[in-house]
Amino acid sequence: MEATGAQQLKDIYCGPVKEHEKRYQTIYKRFGDIFGEEPEFYIRVPGRANLLCDYMSKQGYPSMKITLEQDIVLAFSRSSGSEYRFVN
Questions:
Q1: CA of 85: how far to CAs of 5, 47, 48, 63, in Å?
Q2: Which of 3, 16, 30, 86 has the highest local Cβ count within 10 Å?
Q3: Distance from C-alpha of 52 to C-alpha of 54, rounded to nearest angstrom
C-alpha cells in the first residue's frame, strides 16, 4: 500500500479542520520539546468500530465496520542510530 502523502489537513479530514490543527500544533511542539527537532512526517490511524461485534461475525453473521472521526496521530523522525524512542 502506498502512502497518500497529503500535504494539508483538508486533504485528510472532512469538514472544518480548526480543531485538528490545534492537535497537530500540540504534537509538533511536544515533539520538538522532547527530541529537539521537527517531525519529518505524521501517520494517522482512523478510528473504527464494529456495529455488530467480532463475535457475531465469527458465528457467520454479518458485521458492519464503521469509521469514526476520532483518530490516533503519530509523529516520526528518522534516527541515525539503531535505537527507537517512543513517547506517549
A1: 24, 24, 27, 37
A2: 30
A3: 7
Could you report the per-residue pLDDT of 42-60, keeping only the tens digit for each? Answer: 998 888 877 766 666 677 7
DSSP string, 10-38: GGTSSS--HHHHHHHHHHHHHHHHHHSS-
Which residues, including other chains, have CB under 8 Å from residue 79's CB and lie 6 or more apart? 85
Phi-psi sector, 9: left (phi>0), alpha (psi -120 to 50), beta: alpha
The cell numbers describing 57, all together, are 461475525
Q: How far is CA 7 from CA 3, 4, 29, 84, 88, in A?
A: 12, 9, 18, 26, 24
pLDDT, tens only, 21-46: 999 999 999 999 999 999 999 998 88
Amino acid at site 53: C
